[in-house]
Amino acid sequence: MAATSCRSLHLYNISDGRGKVGTFGIFKSVYRLGEDVVGTLNLGEGTVACLQFSVSLQTEECVQPEYQRRRGAGGAPSVSHVTHARHQESCLHTTRTSFSLPIPLSSTPGFCTAIVSLKWRLHFEFVTSREPGLVLLPPMEQPEPVTWTGPEQVPVDTFSWDLPIKVLPTSPTLASYAAPGPSTSTITI
């Protein structure tokens, strides 16, 4: 398991056309089936307010045109995406958050042949405010009690980002825990 034990923090700056949204950190980019993909998102240093984000653990399967059942126009490879785990969070006024996405033991590790390839990725989607310096907090000092409501509409932009990761087969011992089959237990008193 030496291929997945190296842990050095990989940092990625996340920006849209108007400025920095935040920084994403992940400790490794190579995993085994059954492990968790753990990441952190630091939004406190951004200049663009992030209202919501989602991250999905996905596989991308690409089949070469000559091996497709239904041949598409233009002869482009057929690409399909499958989401295995997803985390979504509303994050206005959040400075730092984290997520953990489990890689199912029953999934297929990444591979590539002349006919088909299967790649893993983290697919991020961000919803950001178009208004610079957006603050959606009630006023702190009021002479009398008031009911505060947020704005009914906030102009937003959305963008996505894909981070490739590698997923390797798991150890046979760990795979045996997920395999259906008879099991026996004995308790001696």
Automatic annotation (TrEMBL):
InterPro entries: Rgp1 (IPR014848). It comes from the Eukaryota. It holds the Pfam family Rgp1. This is RGP1-like protein, RAB6A GEF complex partner 1. It comes from Rousettus aegyptiacus (Egyptian fruit bat). The lineage of its organism: Eukaryota, Metazoa, Chordata, Craniata, Vertebrata.
